[in-house]
Amino acid sequence: MVNDFFEVIRPGINTTFQDNGRNNLYHIGIPFSGAMDTRNYKLANSIIGNKIYSPVVEFAYQGPLLKYKGNKINFVITGDVIFKLIKKDIEVYGECYESYSLEDGDKIDIISTNKSVYGYLAISGEFDLKFQWGSCSVNTKANIGSNNGKKLEVDQKISISKINSNLTKKKLNYTNTRIEKIRVIKGTNYDYFSEEGKKNFFEKEFTVSKLSDRMGMRLEGQNIKNIVDTNIRSEGLIKGVIQVTADGNPIIMLSDHGTIGGYPKIGVVISADYDKLVQISSGSKIKFQEIELSNAETLFKLYEMETQKLILQTQ
Amino acid sequence: MIKNISNLGDAGLYCDFGQEVDKETNSKVIKYFESLKKKKIEGIINLTPSYNKLIVSFDLRKINFRKLKKIVENLDVDKGQPRPIKRIEIPVCSDDSFSLDIERLEKKLSLSKEEIYKNFLKKEYFCYMTGFIAGMPFLGDLEKNMRANRLETPRVKVPKGSIGLTEQFVNVYTFESPGGWNIIGNTPLNLFDNTKEKYPNLINPGDIITFKQISFNDYKNYGE
Predict the structure, then answer these.
(1) Which of B46, B138, B147 should we substitute to test contact with A (largest number of A Cβ atoms within 10 Å)?
(2) What is the CATH number of the domain that holds B97?
(3) Nearest residue of B to residue A135 by CA position?
(4) How far apart are CA A11 and CA A138, in angstroms?
């Protein structure tokens, strides 16, 4: 019998369960999914003392308001997030990367992300979730994953199947940094675009459209002129690919992207910058910088080492 | 057999099998796909075969472009038995409420509605690939007089089950989704079952597909 659970008083805009995503399913049309900002996802689990790829609650912009019922448990929030912990009549603002304890009747009010998009909530225990293809990650489009493949809804319960015995509190000193330019490797259809279009792509600013979501980030502001064909034969896509649609606007493929696409690819965001990319909120400006493959590989190694170092600090 | 291998970003390998889109090229793609899948190479995250390309995405912590390229270049492509081919008949209802773009096609192709359906229904189609959304099959080929471009402005929502045409291809929207294909009907048949983890797709690359027209009444009572 499940005694420990959250009651969803307010679900937030786009709150889903996520983990490390699914592999080897693109060929049947199922995207990778998984937590958008991998570093913040891993840090949430490591601070709370879980296995690094355990399921977490991911929210975007406005997060959920949750009421806890059950035995004492710890939670942590990562990202750049404004949230309150409500105990009886006392309300306190919480700090990200610091674990807090929750007791029967306490509430977590995740008010919003701060100049960023995604945040993560992890608990010192296990959510009671259904796994599909080895992952709990919710893909709302194909209704795959836990919670019947849906976002959190008002009044639903989130059952907790296990609480860890060790409830030591931890804190990590970490601040999310932003980078001025997102680095990009030239795409396989780079030559489809006019000289001016290519120049604009790497020199001018774009604005992130409010039509962006877990599938893709749409950009506006510069028209990238195509001089060959606005369609290619549909072919596979990967995370970070920047397609330019017939109207000349770029769209960047994010974790829930369609597995196949038919627009020319002007570039691909490097792996080292992906976590930073997904955190750029709608209405914000974005600029790109060209980079060679070998440099991109080195930058990723450095980024991974930095993540590992942060994880070690929480042990 | 691969014409060119290049990198797609820092965590993707892009195999180009040439410009042609036909069964022969596609079966080469599928052979490489099956062989690589069987080899279970450490670090490969996903393999996406399409008409004439194979894209491999990988975990940059475990392998890199240079190493993977070498593996693919030296791959001993499987000469073994190909996957058994299925023949599948898809019921399609052409009721006016489903055939959203039939008037557009009548104009573009200079054919009557009856002629369009007659041409569409008499052909057998080959499944080149599945994807975009879960389980969506890309089928071909339509006769030359049946080929039309995508809609100028794609729909924000194409209903689940819609049958769409574009250029030489036919597809079935397995879920409600944005899309720009010319919709000529709808099928009550479910092509993707996420409760079946092993084989969620009804149609797979290489399968042969035919369409059979059903009445609106049969559509409503389908599966009962």
Answers:
(1) B46
(2) 2.40.100.10
(3) B197
(4) 15
- Residue type present at position A308: Q
DSSP state of B22: S
Q: Which helix (H) or strand (E) holds A24?
A: none
The residue ranges of chain A whose pLDDT is under 50 are none
* One-letter amino acid of B179: G
Q: A204-231 pLDDT, tens per residue?
A: 999 999 989 999 999 999 999 999 988 8
- Residue A294, SS3 per DSSP: helix
Supply the range of the domain harboring residue B63. 4-73
- Same domain assignment for residues B110 and B57: no
Cα–Cα distance, B100 to B145 (Å, whole number): 20
Please give the tally of structural domains in chain B: 2
Residue B122 and residue B69 share a domain = no
Q: Are residues B69 and B95 in the same domain?
A: no
Task: Assess whether B93 and B185 both reside in one domain.
Answer: yes
Per the domain annotation, does B78 fall within a domain? no
Q: CB–CB of B133 and A142 under 8 A? A: yes
Going along chain A from its start, the domains and CATH numbers come out as 5-163 (no CATH), 182-310 (2.40.100.10)
Mean pLDDT confidence for B84-113? 96
**Whole-number pLDDT of residue A141:** 85
Q: Do B138 and A234 touch (CB under 8 A)?
A: yes
Q: Are residues B94 and B50 in the same domain?
A: no
3-state helix, strand, coil in chain B (%, to 5): 25, 30, 45
DSSP string of A48-104? Answer: HT--TT--EEEEESS--EEEEESS-EEEEEESSEEEEEEETTEEEE--TTB-EEE-T
Q: Say how far apart CA A232 and CA B8 lie, in whole Å.
A: 15
State how far the alpha carbon of B131 is from the alpha carbons of A129, A220, B50, B169, in Å: 26, 27, 9, 14
pTM, full prediction: 0.94
Beta-carbon contacts of B223 under 8 Å, excluding residues fewer than 6 positions away, are: B188
Does A236 contact B55 at a Cβ distance shorter than 8 Å?
yes
Same domain, yes or no: B56 and B92: no
Please check whether residue B45 lies inside any domain of the structure: yes
CA nearest to A22 within chain B: B45
Provide the ipTM: 0.94
Give the Cα separation of B163 and B170 in Å (integer).
7
Count of residues making up chain A: 315
Q: Domain check: are B45 and B108 in the same one?
A: no
DSSP A152: -
CB pairs under 8 A between A and B: 145
